[in-house]
Amino acid sequence: MPLRVVVAGASGVVGRTLLPLLRARGHHVTALVRRCPDRSCAEQADEVVTADVLDLAALREALTAAAPDVVVDQIAGFGPAGPHDAEAARRAADRRAATAGNLVVAAVAAGARRVVAQSTAAAYRPHGHEVLDEDAPLWTDAPGCWGDLVRSIASVEEAVLTCPGIEGVALRYGALYGPATEFAPGGTVHEQVRGSALPVVGDGFGLTSFTHLDDAAGAVLEVLDDIDPGAYNVVDNEPAECAEWLPAYARMIGCPAPVSLTVEQAEAQLDWLTVHRLTEQRGATNFRLRETVGWRPAWPSWREGFAELLGHWPG
């Protein structure tokens, strides 16, 4: 059944991928952006509205005019942050929590029945060598700026999942890759690997669950209707140890293999969050989403997804 869908953060990497898919399904799409959109965003939506999501009054007015059935929150705001960005990370965390809260309030006022929000599977508290499901706790007491960001993620999910009168869905993406992401040519990870600045640390047991932009957007399509409210991991089928994906990625971009550091060396040379991700971060399972709606990732393994992104995939 066609729905009226507002996409907040429509000009972001997931939003840009999502808009044409929604239109192809017959949904009426309103792109909500903070500034005047680029041409591609305007062309892929039925209408475009501008509003600052931190301005609740303006946001309520914009959503009421759009009259959505579903509000999709694809506003990013929790990315990697090093030790020198602690204050910026705290500000980003506060903004992200505030934007989610405002979107929920405005969605209720506009008569929407469902809010779908972007979250992250990187926020789980590390536990042994297990791959984690949605019942695992978020690491809200993590050290430093990462703790600030995880607490903001928890606030986003609380706002979406506990508001009376609204059906809330939180999509916990893995490490997003695809065009214009940090793994694409010129992106942060791409440049770090090119510069031998991202090593294999210790045994390389840190797990990363990856999510192609196509699969992030495809999951949104599946949860617009007829799925129980709650949190769902949106990740591929193959959580990867850094000792596996980092050398493979380096080969694909034509770089030497990453250097190897002991944990002690890494702690002396790298920021805490990078060491955490390379040594103790846990991956996530997509079992709940697969079994609930039959969702399957178009890119079930990061291997094929990276190959396509970096020009090594046939066709």
Automatic annotation (TrEMBL):
Domain NAD-dependent epimerase/dehydratase: 5-234
Alphabetical list of InterPro entries matching this protein: Epimerase_deHydtase (IPR001509), NAD(P)-bd_dom_sf (IPR036291), NAD(P)-dependent_oxidoreduct (IPR051783)
Pfam family, one: Epimerase
Name of the protein in its database record: NAD-dependent epimerase/dehydratase family protein
Organism: Saccharopolyspora cebuensis
